[in-house]
Please model this.
Amino acid sequence: MICKIRGKRKAINLALLALLIPGLCFANNGNRGMATPPHKAAQVKNIILFIGDGMQLEHEVAYSRYLTGEDFGLVWNQLDYEVPVATWDVTTYNGYARQLGAAPFAYDNFDPAVGYDANRGGFERYPLDKTGEDNYFLRPRFATDSASAGTAIAAGVKTDDGNIAWRSKDPSDGAVKTIAELVREQRGMSIGVVSTVPFSHATPAAFVSHNVSRNNYFTGRGGYQGLGIADEIIQVTQPEVVIGGGHIDYNSGFMSRALYDELQAGSEYVFVDRQPGVDANQALLAGAKEAKKNGQKLFGLFGGAGGNFEPPLVFHNPGQPTVEAATIENPTLATATTAALEVLSTNENGLFLMVEQGDIDWANHANDYFWMMGTVHDLHEAVKAAITFINQPGDQLDWSNTLLLVTSDHGNSYMRLNPALPLGKGELPAANEILAWNQSAAPGVEPKVTYGTGSHTNELVSLYVQGAAAELFSLYEGAWYPGTTIVDNTHIFEAMKDFALDWQYEGWLPGMPRNSFVSGKSVGGAR
Model:
């Protein structure tokens, strides 16, 4: 049998695939033919998932140029596998369906090309593919929000915007289990979420809570057992690690005082929170050491006036990129990642950790280039910290049993760098060289950075993978988007589930039409 698999920037190990999946021949034609559905290729014991909220490839390129002078010089550009990802949700799908005169989304019959049309949006991420139509993304603008995008990655379900691990807007059409819940229940793995925005915000919430509205932070309605998001996380799900923003002394919108008092008084968690003048990096690592020693869980509560960590500051220093912490009172995302892994890695059954740099998105909403650069730096250092942790000897993590993923939940801002005025290592544009979406260019000044919107976009985003069974993500290439290498964001869940749990691969059989989905059985379908 001769099989051809479309190559990526990193070569796929075809020999390994042939050994792992006898009889499989996959091409990017919308169907995946297989004689026998294969079992999982390797038992993944640990999954570390990074999400740069609102980060698209152009943001990555911008920071890479600042850090290295090259377009693809970031740590995740060196990982073994890379693929573009479609991010549409049910709300996005229905917007395009109305425009096209097509039927609205239904779980048992939908066409993924309505959600993302590669012929109009591009077969690859911008700037790798510059054929995408501005009008397709901006006029009108349809795009997922972080709640439904987080749900797609966490639970493999397409849903309406605003839903947190919840199937639809109907309160009775309820909660769906997430990858964190599944690996804990079925494998006894420890679970954790880390974010630079409030721990009850959309992305972390989608992995460890369930609600009909992302805004029900602690209102006591709309979610599992009628609980708000923060209440469910702290009182029901109780992940082994929670680190995030939303400290009540700085912003009271994300948790109640009663929950804060419960954390301070309880014995479940070693509780570390923001304190004036206290170095949060040292305090959080000390808390992790205590939790590890005593077999406890770890809760780190930080954040500032907006609920998020104050982002790192970047400086214009040609040839010498310079980044400084805005305050010592919040930890870096790298320290938070290390602290989480210290606690979670004590479980010999393995771990699932989701780490979000959440205010990349906030920066892009504001069309704030400097804020965005600081937050992408924060994510970059956190991924480096995780790789260092995996590489260290003497614990249960190594590359044979650990899957590392770096991705984004959606695009934001339609930011574009001016190819005629490229920025080099350590260089930042002047303020008047940045053109926000609602501004006009200053007389005589050609912008180096432009923004097309202050909102989310339906652009393709990136997925980078390293570690155990990483090559098998290629099975999903083009499955929903024939003739491309694009995977869907729901496929990230499917791959993590297939790798971590002792289940068979669930894909199309030969000849099955693309819109034939069986509830609970299709790749990325209803569950």
The first helix runs from residue 14 to 20. The CA atoms of residues 272 and 300 lie 5 Å apart. The longest strand covers residues 190-198. Residues 1-42, 503-527 have pLDDT under 50 and may be disordered.
